[in-house]
Amino acid sequence: MLICSVLEYATSYFMEKIFKARWWDYSTKKFNINGRICLNTLIPFGLLGLVMTYAVNPFLMGVYNNFSITQINIISLIIFIIFVTDYVESVFALNKVKGVGVLLEKDNTEEMSKRVKELLSNINWRERRLIKAFPNAKYFGNAIKEAKNKIESKQEQIKNETNARIQILKDEYNSKIEQIKINSERRINKLINKNKK
Q: What pLDDT is stored for residue 72 in this prediction?
């Protein structure tokens, strides 16, 4: 459980940093850490680890012991070639998704995922395989631009409201100055008229 939790957390973190994508999110589940790992998945990982250690591995070791060194080398080479091919294909697919861009924004997650899946619908088998492998991946391409536009729109709104408020204060200030000026002239005229009498 511990090894799987560290591996899953690190994989989620580094894939998000490198490819700008969040491939799974457990934030809605109880007992999660930053949405990257949760107890609901760690317990099955631990149980499967026990099954692998005490059931599958002994069986495979029995099969393995029946092969010759030459057969083991050939099987190892085939598995290695499959692994490298899969790795290279996955990196190409991930780089294509990376170009789309991703953001962890709860509001637009479904919409952005839908947009990316539509964008990638005309792609080759390796990208389709990636989409099938991570159907709940949270993509966001235009979300950053949309967020920036929202911020700029809000700034413009605040600026306009501030300017309108300043204009109101200026008008009130000018009105008060005019009123003071008129009152001062009246008082001066009264004093002048008083002195003349």
A: 92
